[in-house]
Amino acid sequence: MRPFQYIRPKNVKEAVDMVSLEENARFIAGGTNLVDLMKRNIETPDKLVDITHLPLKKIEYHSGTLRIGALALNSDVAEHAIVNSRFPLLAKAIDAGASGQLRNMATVGGNLLQRTRCAYFYDTAFPCNKRQLETGCAAVGGINRMHAIFGLEKNDLEKSCIAVHPSDMCVALAALDAIIITFGPKGERKIPIQDFHRLPGNRPDLDSILEKGELILAVELKSNTFQQHTHYLKIRDRAAYAFAIVSAAVALDVQQDQIRAARVALGGVAHKPWRLFDVEKALAGKPISQNTFRNAAAVSVADAKTFEHNAFKIKLLPNVILEALMNAAGLEPSYD
Amino acid sequence: MAEEFPAENEPALLHENRRLFLKQSVTLAGLALAPTPFFGPAALNVEEIPGGDAENVKLSISVNGVKKSLSIDPRVTLLDLLRERLALTGTKKGCDFGQCGACTVHVDGQRVLSCLSLAVMQQDKKVVTIEGLGKLDQLHPLQEAFIKHDGFQCGYCTPGQLMSAACCIREGKAGSEAEIQEYMSGNLCRCGAYPNIVNAILEVKNSGQKV
């Protein structure tokens, strides 16, 4: 690991100043990804600004809005009574990610900002546009069964990236239209999660739209009518503790067996958590039934693009969405 | 057990002296090369060494109930602090990248991975390692159960398994075989003692013993 100076700022303003004014300074909280990357010399900060003492840990519910402090631990969120009663999809998604130990360390802000788990990003023997711009992408012609199928159509693959965002929590946040509250050199701003993460384009080094020194303060969720019918389904290579090949966060607002509104978001398929607005439209106004769900799920892969090893996702994905929707609606699937 | 080891043992002091020597050498070398206008008080100030120089940082930490006051390089992980500096080698280094769980310890009562924790960030925290879980003359109930159920072969993952298992029970996530499998999934065992580990945890959980 390269030498760095360790700093413990007194407040948010001081923390933001330290990272925005220094050329190569980074915030650190849980460190579950950053320390890993520093050991591999993929991240080489000169200054590490420890924000874990800042008062950003609270989880509060006021007049229909849940506000989760950026430093709330993943395990604290997943165990929180109001999260479980009003936003169960979030608790389910967090529990599907990482391990007990990692959830005790990882924060909500850090989870939003974790880097991809593409093996070529971590292996410095291979070229990687995300690690070093315009060096090429080893995944395009390499082992790419874990890689993206969405958000690729406009990209120049020589300069871009086909890695996926690894978070489970963010998939639920995307389905629940979370708002990310940040504070940076230009003050506070509220960023809808749809705008927070970027598609790679020609700047795959940038995962989010955060500016230098901009710090996540909290995540807000508005109360919704989805809490009765939600499900998070994660498909992975082993039964637990592995990143998603494909995951689906689904939420249904059902009244008298009619779907009033639906939310469907996916993990493991794109550079960011991927909302399926077309599938949501196909569900709205329909009765809950296996047929409704199957027809809507079939729409999901219309814009997909595949590589040598991940074409199976085209077949897998509609089945994952179907099963997640059946589960959310409390229906037993019948297979013909 | 931790009291057997002095807070400041010899290798650590040697290490510090070497760092100081290097720092002084760098300053002197800088002086020799600096153009005349730069000779002055600023050039003698070690704070002026250009960016990226790691200064040692003071750390107060409690390990197995013993308070330690240390001065450490900020790059040192909690795992390396325990093993290399405090000679508590019960905590194992498996992957060193947060994937295997062998390095699991308790920090303020919560199970965490010591290999991904920077020691300097553990200021005023209470750390418990495998050396603090049971006593040599009176094993922890989980240690007894692991022996009874053959919860290991080579034993390398065992300290991490035990630390993780204690929290798994305390967290209320050891209610069934399936739940234990899920909530112990961060601890890999390449010998494949999983079924026996699950049985050991389930037995301790069902016995209602304090863990």
Automatic annotation (TrEMBL), chain A:
Pfam short name (any one): CO_deh_flav_C
Sequence ranges assigned to domain FAD-binding PCMH-type in this UniProt record: 1-226
One GO molecular-function entry: oxidoreductase activity
Keyword Flavoprotein (UniProt): yes
Gene3D superfamilies xrefs: 3.30.465.10, CO dehydrogenase flavoprotein, C-terminal domain (3.30.390.50), Uridine Diphospho-n-acetylenolpyruvylglucosamine Reductase, domain 2 (3.30.43.10)
InterPro entries to which the protein is assigned, alphabetical: CO_DH_flav_C, CO_DH_flav_C_dom_sf, Diverse_Substr_Oxidored, FAD-bd_PCMH, FAD-bd_PCMH-like_sf, FAD-bd_PCMH_sub1, FAD-bd_PCMH_sub2, Mopterin_DH_FAD-bd
UniProt keywords, alphabetically: FAD, Flavoprotein
Protein name: Xanthine dehydrogenase family protein subunit M
Organism: Dyadobacter luticola
UniProtKB/TrEMBL annotation, chain B:
This protein's UniProt keywords: 2Fe-2S, Iron, Iron-sulfur, Metal-binding, Oxidoreductase
Top-rank taxon: Bacteria
Alphabetical list of Gene3D superfamilies matching this protein: 3.10.20.30, [2Fe-2S]-binding domain
GO MF term (any one): 2 iron, 2 sulfur cluster binding
One matching Pfam family: Fer2
PANTHER family for this protein: OXIDOREDUCTASE WITH IRON-SULFUR SUBUNIT, OXIDOREDUCTASE, IRON-SULPHUR BINDING SUBUNIT-RELATED-RELATED
Name of the featured protein: 2Fe-2S iron-sulfur cluster binding domain-containing protein
Organism (species): Dyadobacter luticola
